[in-house]
Design a protein that fits this description.
198 residues; mainly alpha; 2 strands
Length: 198
């Protein structure tokens, strides 16, 4: 939840694009179900499940769009790490875990959104001039994996939602009864015609 709030603070466009994508997904969801089950009608339970699905998809889509924004700004963050490293360490200095953590913490203090996606303890042994690129690469890699997991969650919600919606749809079959009754009427007329001819 905090990640979502920080993403919204970081980029308000995430809210707009996330909800728009969720609306498009729901439109496709309804179109496919109605196309497959033409004789069925949505019940009240179906609409409730659809509303819950929309909320869950919106949440995930907002996180995805915010994550894409962070990936697009990876070069900028690399420059910020580089600025801190160049200010405090010589280029060929071997960075310890603690020194690398101090660099990360300083940048995170300026950009709090990063605290959810990158942490220290894994960047020891790099030389100072290599450290910013290593951190930025790790950040981009994590964000790609983060987006992939959000997409998996979206697919899971859609599959489960589709199953529940299909189960709660009411099957109306008046057309079938009408067809049967019209066929019976036609056969009755044919029988009457044959009788009159005799």
């Amino acid at each position: 939840m905090w990640a979502l709030l920080n993403l919204l603070k970081y980029s308000i466009s995430s809210l707009f694009w996330g909800i728009l994508i969720a609306v498009l997904c729901m439109a496709l969801f309804v179109f496919l179900i109605k196309g497959w089950y033409k004789d069925a009608q949505f019940s009240l339970a179906s609409y409730i499940v659809g509303a819950l699905l929309f909320i869950l998809l919106s949440f995930q889509c907002i996180l995805i769009t915010g994550s894409l924004k962070i990936i697009s700004d990876t070069d900028y963050y690399e420059l910020q790490f580089q600025r801190v490293v160049e200010r405090d360490y010589p280029p060929l200095a071997d960075m310890s875990l603690r020194q690398a953590d101090d660099v990360i913490k300083e940048v995170i203090s300026e950009y709090p959104i990063l605290q959810y996606y990158i942490s220290g303890g894994t960047f020891g042994g790099f030389q100072a001039y290599n450290l910013p690129h290593a951190i930025a690469s790790e950040l981009a890699s994590f964000m790609r994996w983060y987006i992939f997991r959000r997409i998996l969650w979206c697919l899971a919600f859609v599959v489960i939602g589709a199953i529940i919606v299909i189960k709660t749809m009411s099957r109306s079959r008046p057309k079938v009864h009408q067809r049967i009754s019209t066929r019976e009427k036609r056969t009755d007329r044919r029988v009457e015609r044959r009788r009159t001819r005799r």
